[in-house]
Amino acid sequence: MSANTVTAARIHQHGGPEVIALEQIALPDPGPGEARVRNTAIALNFYDIYERTGLYPIDLPATLGCESAGVVEAVGPQAGDIRVGDRVAVLSGPGNYAEAMIAPVASLVPLPDGIDEKTAAAAMTKAMTVEFLLERCFKVRRGQTILFHAAAGGVGLLACQWARALGVTTIGTVSTREKASLAAEAGCDLPVVTGEEDFVAVVERETKGKGVPVVYDSIGKDTFEGSLKCLARRGTMVSFGQSSGEPEPFRPRLLARHGSIYITRPGMGDYTTTRQELLSSAGRVFAMLESGKLSVTIGQSFALADIAEAHRALEGRATTGSTIILP
Known about the structure:
With 327 residues, the chain is of the alpha/beta class. The protein is built from 9 helices and 16 strands.
């Protein structure tokens, strides 16, 4: 086996976790503006599931994965400030479910000495998502109360901590009492176990009927209508995922019926459109981590050979915090 032959988790068709197969692939030498990165930790994100199922179309066959961390092994021409030996987060994909990969240097973020690769893989995309959600998509303000769904997930636990640092009160939905405890430890002021309480009623009670200025909803179909009912007049619905499926289509007059509300469906790519934006967002995350205001919970890890099992656990809401894959 050549030095450039690596094991990768690939799909040749869309479908369930069973379509993922480990294969040997040959990596080319990095071209202009590219680097070869040896992955030491790989992130598991719902985005990967959306690509596997075909919700987010990708060209097949493909190596899945959109985020990892590792060490630069080789660089091509025009590599900018990226050097061989650099420890980096790789924020591009598909292609990260592999022992090594070719990545554009524009997607590489050098890691500070105090941030290890497992933490980077577990945190970077999720924490950068929280950064733009809370500080740019809808800029929350001290003293506000927000509703954040899936508060014990990888993004949710980071969002609870970030909101606490900003002086914001968080009502967060979770699926079990165990997850409620995790969310509370992370700074969620009022965890709501959805099988035991109606989150709409909780928001109405806690806000004395006024509603919250913003709802962050990554669940989608199962929570969409309830989320709209939780909004204050001229509030904002931030729909940034659909783990339960896409919400049903609606007519624009629905926005008026719920109080002239706004709906946005943000993606991180639109908040990191330039190298400067990418590094600025990452720098904000590094500052939060190094200050101790943000800590990462790696709830579980899987070997690359067990990637299908990892997908089943994430889809079945059987995970807590972040999940990493070890190649």
